[in-house]
Each structure stands twice: as structure tokens, then as C-alpha cells.
Write a structure and sequence with these properties.
Distance between the termini: 24 Å
CATH superfamily: Peptidyl-tRNA hydrolase
Order of helices and strands: EHEEEHEEHH
Number of helices: 4
Radius of gyration: 17 Å
Structural class: alpha+beta
Shape: globular
Number of domains: 1
Oligomer: single chain
CATH topology: Rossmann fold
CATH class: Alpha Beta
């Protein structure tokens, strides 16, 4: 989150490393992120983390975080999770057992497994579903989580 606890839209552009993929359909996501960073005049501010390049700021009234994983597309889930914890202190784990590759777990043991992080992610998911014209009871997921945690 940015100062003031404003909601950030995270845009992840997928691609593949290597010259053979440069300027191909495999790197459309990376090209989109590069173009957004150019338009916002953020190209020179990108932080090159071990898992992904990230840059964030305010552009056209939106608080944005642009993420460009340094991994092949089919392995980008781990890079995105690592960027989220490094950049926003939100920990998301991969699914285990029968859920491997199908779900992410919000918050693991430790500092980032706080209720407020779960609330942030649930609120973001509600917002995304609502934007896609899905029927969502705004605030319902957070209210349910608060009830489960005894935080009325």
C-alpha cells in the first residue's frame, strides 16, 4: 500500500526471458508494462528485485504498481508472490497437495499473516469481481472474515 493506505492496482505483465522471445507474442505482457512505465515517466525508477522488476506511483488518478516477473510465464506465480511480499509486505503462498497450482494462500506464518492483510486482499478481490460485473456483496467477505476471527 502507498502512504495513506490508498488502494493500489497491481498490474503484472508476463513474459519470457531471453533474446529469442524479445518482441514476440510471448512478451506482450512485458511490452505493456514497459509502455505503461514510459507513459507515466517511471522507466528510470524501476526497482530490479531478484524475482521481478517493480515500479509504483500515481498515474491518471490511479495508484499503480507495475510488476514484470523475471521468470518464464509458466513459473511466474512464484515471482509474483515474491514481489508482493518484498514490495507490499503481503505474503501469499502456493497451494499445497491437491490444490497445488490451483490456489494461493493469503498470509503465512509470521508478520504478514495479520488480519488486516487478509482484509486488504479480500477487499481487492471483491473490487475486481465487481468491476467484472460479477454479483458481489461489497464488504461481505471482510465482514465474514471479521466474524470468523471474532473481530466484529
Amino acid at each position: 500500500m502507498l502512504p495513506g493506505d490508498r488502494k493500489v492496482k497491481v498490474v503484472v505483465g508476463l513474459g519470457n526471458p531471453g533474446r529469442q522471445y524479445a518482441e514476440t507474442r510471448h512478451n506482450i505482457g512485458w511490452m505493456v508494462i514497459d509502455r505503461l512505465a514510459e507513459r507515466a515517466r517511471w522507466s528510470d525508477r524501476a526497482a530490479r528485485g531478484s524475482a521481478a522488476a517493480t515500479v509504483s506511483g500515481r498515474y491518471r488518478g490511479l495508484d499503480l504498481a507495475l510488476v514484470k516477473p523475471h521468470t518464464f510465464m509458466n513459473l511466474s506465480g512464484s515471482a509474483v508472490r515474491k514481489a508482493l511480499v518484498e514490495r507490499f509486505n503481503i505474503e501469499i503462498g502456493a497451494g499445497l497437495g491437491a490444490f497445488k497450482g490451483k490456489v494461493w494462500r493469503i498470509g503465512l506464518m509470521g508478520y504478514s499473516s495479520r488480519p488486516e492483510n487478509v482484509f486488504k486482499v479480500l477487499d481487492a478481490l471483491e473490487q475486481l469481481f465487481a468491476e467484472q460485473k460479477q454479483r458481489v456483496e461489497r464488504g461481505g467477505a471482510v465482514a465474514a472474515a471479521r466474524a470468523v476471527l471474532g473481530l466484529r
